[in-house]
Amino acid sequence: MAQSERAIVIGGGIGGLAAAATLHRRGWDVTVLERARTLEPVGAALSLAPNALRALDVLGIGGEIRDLAAWQGDGGLRTPGGRWLSRSNAEAAAARFGGPLVLLPRATLVDRLAALLPPDAVRTGAAATLADPGDSRRPARVTTGGDEFEAELVVGADGIDSRVRSALFPAHPGPVYAGFTTWRVLIPVPGVAFASHETWGRGRIWGTHPVKDGRVYAYAAAMTPAGGRAPDDEKAELLRLFGDWHEPIPAVLAAARPEDVLRHDVHHLATPLPAYHSGRVALLGDAAHAMPPTLGQGGNQAIEDAVVLGHHSGDLAAYTAARLPRTTAIARQAVKVARVNMAGHPVAVAVRDTVIAALSKAGPALFLRGFDGIADWRPPYAAGEADKR
Prior knowledge:
Elements: E1 6-10, H1 14-25, E2 29-34, E3 45-48, H2 50-58, H3 62-66, E4 74-78, E5 84-89, H4 90-97, E6 102-105, H5 106-114, E7 122-124, E8 129-132, E9 140-144, E10 147-151, E11 153-156, H6 163-168, E12 176-187, E13 196-200, E14 204-210, E15 216-223, H7 234-242, H8 249-255, E16 262-268, E17 277-278, E18 281-283, H9 286-289, H10 298-311, H11 316-341, H12 346-362, H13 366-369
Parallel strand pairs: 1-2, 1-11, 2-7, 4-13, 11-18
Antiparallel strand pairs: 3-6, 4-5, 8-9, 9-10, 12-15, 12-16, 13-14, 14-15, 17-18
Helix pairs in contact: 1-5, 1-10, 2-10, 10-11
């Protein structure tokens, strides 16, 4: 591969920055075009499983990210009244999958990935359009404002509403509403001790987890029509939905301000794409396989995409072959999990809770079983090979 070959990454989120860092490490001349004015990410925190941490090892930062692991001792799955349905701990998770689970602010990972790039590699306030996907005989072309770029590789990392995906696959139906909305907060909650947990109710879930910097990350979801908003504010909505659930949920809500609460409807790509590439363009992350957050794998799979794309940057058909079956299977599993944990009928909820408790007594916690075949993934090459060309 010639030193002068150029890659344009459209989108400066976690997947786009990870792809840019991987390609830069392999000798590409990389430019990231981000439409927002800053790289400040949307969202509060991100959970990284061992599969994504191994991918970050390829970039040389897996170790420092692992040091941010905060989950200690017991955790698991609870009912709104506080009863434990399933228990696990950090040691069991690390033993099963060969590494820890790490929860960190999205901004921390974005900053660390951006630091792997040359200072002038990222251009913000640059809304990019794919003008020509290129082919084996001509480069791809990207325009932004009055500028035009030619590149041997273009990476579409522009999220669930990807314009690059629409340009490559105009007949694809695009994202659909998953049936539920989510809320997230990342705040200090002084003096509150708790075990990391997720709580499943009737058509509602809540999660509370510690972050290494001392803050608490909490998220919630509820079945609701698309496009809804609270009549007053989203903190008040959370109090209506979850205020009588077990501690520390009331304490977290008491500590949150209305402006701390982020709300977003959940959409996903219910119809898989036929490929993750066309011409000289590759898609990754939500642009390729947006999925419900029920497995916490959206960002993880984007990071996997990035290092696999770097490995197959000269053969995009091989990239599709490596990534499409895996991500399609994980996305389908996330949809199935959403149907279970967002169940709303009282009989279905009672059966669900009974089965979870019974299965967890008979073997590893359901939480751990759900990551089999996902968290044990390893990159297609060792970290020491990342610089080979």
